[in-house]
């Protein structure tokens, strides 16, 4: 007869084993739910609650962070705040929109300097530089908060170029160039549609095929938002030298770019009805529907009227000898300021916006990712009605050219000045050489004027 105490001990041991097994199952389920395969939701996940068997961690100290940026106030919660506070509920983020306040106003009216600055790469960095608010994130990044290997290396090279080799911020999204085309025009001319991987020479021949008159309507083969084509050029050429602060456009690289782009406007019939503004040319593409192709920013499809067009897009063409490198990506950056009281927490917040989960949601909403993750790239535009059935993957077909270094203080609108001189070429007013010489002169005049007016 088994002694009673031994029976009790055996039962107790069985209960302990059962409890351990249930606990292990619970932990395995929790691990499974946080795996990459389960991060497809567009909503941020809340921080998991500790099980009763775990000893509760001490409540973290509250962290307050001010965010300054150019997105609308109503976009702040879904685009930034919700993602950060889901991971870090003890973080409190306060947003100040640059459409209402600039940084001097923010300091004067609110007694606040931003901890995080979200916005356009070059323009917003110069705002920070003007107030000496930039800070190098390299030591914090090296501590392991951010994994730079997840990023397209060209995007990190761009970030370092902006910062003189340092790392003042990280890329969050981009707006690269693509080639849009009107299928109806190609059908009228019985011409093949454009394809990914075309060279400039192939595009030139295609543009010639769809330039002419059909059924009493004159069609132009191609136009370009050439201001951005010059700004984000494939050879990473600066307009102003970052070190000397002088114009840097009278060289063989810029000559090749001017000659290449201008020849498309010299196709017989392709200047008929041209508007003296490349932005107006984009409007004509989707309003008048008599331009077969337009080279423009990938975000151009969002313009009202595009939905009435029978369109698609392909990768922007490349130079045959440039190794598949396309235009620069024109990134949106997130900077952390030198005055941030808790730079580590600020970088943790930024890193959450760069997580696979947040970037997947952004990609589905039509914001190109700087990450290399193939699934995130594939998801681009998945929840955008206008991109359904379109070749949205075209934006990633080419490698992105890195953006060149910028001059830290000059703020003149150099791309517009250069585009103004380029237009003189396509209008037949100046040769390429004359236009580049004129651009150099006018840019240096504008630089001297800006320097003379600086306090």
From TrEMBL:
<protein>
    <submittedName>
        <fullName>Extracellular solute-binding protein</fullName>
    </submittedName>
</protein>
<comment type="similarity">
    <text>Belongs to the bacterial solute-binding protein 1 family.</text>
</comment>
<feature type="signal peptide">
    <location>
        <begin position="1"/>
        <end position="24"/>
    </location>
</feature>
<keyword id="KW-0732">Signal</keyword>
<dbReference type="InterPro" id="IPR006059">
    <property type="entry name" value="SBP"/>
</dbReference>
<feature type="compositionally biased region" description="Low complexity">
    <location>
        <begin position="29"/>
        <end position="46"/>
    </location>
</feature>
<dbReference type="InterPro" id="IPR050490">
    <property type="entry name" value="Bact_solute-bd_prot1"/>
</dbReference>
<dbReference type="Pfam" id="PF13416">
    <property type="entry name" value="SBP_bac_8"/>
</dbReference>
<feature type="region of interest" description="Disordered">
    <location>
        <begin position="29"/>
        <end position="64"/>
    </location>
</feature>
<feature type="compositionally biased region" description="Pro residues">
    <location>
        <begin position="47"/>
        <end position="60"/>
    </location>
</feature>
<keyword id="KW-0813">Transport</keyword>
